[in-house]
Amino acid sequence: MVVGAGAKILGDITIGSGSRVGANAVVVKPVPPESLVVGIPGQVIKRRKTRMRDQPDLHHDRLPDTVGKALQDLMSRLDRVEVQLQNQKNDQFKTDQVKAYINTNK
Description:
The chain contains one helix and six strands. By secondary structure, the protein is an alpha/beta fold. It has two domains: 1-49, UDP N-Acetylglucosamine Acyltransferase, domain 1 (3 Solenoid); 65-106. The chain has a four-stranded mixed sheet, with no helix packed on it. The radius of gyration is 25 Å and the shape is rod-shaped.
């Protein structure tokens, strides 16, 4: 098990063998073996492969950025909503132009 700098493990919590706790993570639930915990509160992310050696895995630079991913997803969704809104505005503008043309040519 490796615990990153500033991480907090709150309460009587079991951290499974071979797990890593990212820096500043706050662990509030038990962690299964060969897992990774990041964030506040700590989110357990299951590793895809088990370690092949008995040395601790100290590659803290390879921890996922769950908050960054969530922000990217949110920004992508916002972009799609803005495109839909602009399309609706364009459609309404065209409808208003047609109505104005009809009203002026009566």
